[in-house]
Amino acid sequence: MRVVVAMTGCSGIIYGVRLLETLKQVDGIITYLIISDTAKKILKLETQYSLEDLRKISYAIFSEDDMMAPLASSSFNIDAMVIVPCSLKTLSALAYGLSQNLIVRCADNVLRTRKKLVLVPRETPLSDIHLINMLKLFRRGAIILPAMPAFYHNPRTIADLIDFVVGKILDALNIRLNVYTKWGTI
Ligand SMILES: Cc1cc2nc3c(=O)[nH]c(=O)nc-3n(C[C@H](O)[C@H](O)[C@H](O)COP(=O)(O)O)c2cc1C
């Protein structure tokens, strides 16, 4: 399974890092990372991870302006793409087909070819502009999965809260891993 993970300039960049770490442990999954310029800055601001660390947990890594990358073409066959975290700016660009960078171009390809696209926005509060953009993308087939951790599983650490969101992304990708305690688990 080939999965593109894109990180954009949002608080909560750790969700993307943790997703890459988790997918790295799964046999048969190859991850390609695209990281925006602002995401690189927020990675430094919010975490102890470096780009070098991300290189170790992804098969290949691309910058947002690398429009010559194979991922810019829909002929580069991927199974799914996750934008985590997904800024409202990137979400808007995608809603309007403005493929001005590799992240939006690749996501647009995923929508055009009706592959799986998971968007993990993180912002609050939201305006009608953002809600309408999310509705547009949902109707075009994207899964809108806001970074909203729950509390019914009695999280003890921040890592538990992060893993809840990562677990929801894995559910959306149909990857069965027990990274969070599901309601009614038997
Ligand atoms: C420290 C910091 C935190 C930010 N957090 C968010 C956020 O949580 N959600 C969001 O939509 N934008 C956030 N932004 C604004 C985006 O980074 C900005 O809109 C940027 O242009 C997004 O570009 P990109 O999507 O190409 O990465 C944040 C910016 C900074 C500097």
What labels describe this entry?
single chain; 186 residues; alpha/beta; Rossmann fold; 6-stranded parallel beta sheet; 40% helix; 17% strand; globular; binds flavin mononucleotide
Structural notes for this entry:
- Helix content is 40%, strand content 17%.
- The chain has seven helices and six strands.
- Strand 1 (2-7), helix 1 (13-24) and strand 2 form a beta-alpha-beta unit.
- The model has no long low-confidence stretch (mean pLDDT 96).
- It is globular, with a radius of gyration of 15 Å.
- With 186 residues, the protein is of the alpha/beta class.
- Bound molecules: flavin mononucleotide.
In short:
The chain has helices at 13-24, 37-46, 51-57, 88-95, 102-112, 128-139, 158-172; strands spanning 2-7, 30-35, 60-63, 80-86, 116-121, 143-144.
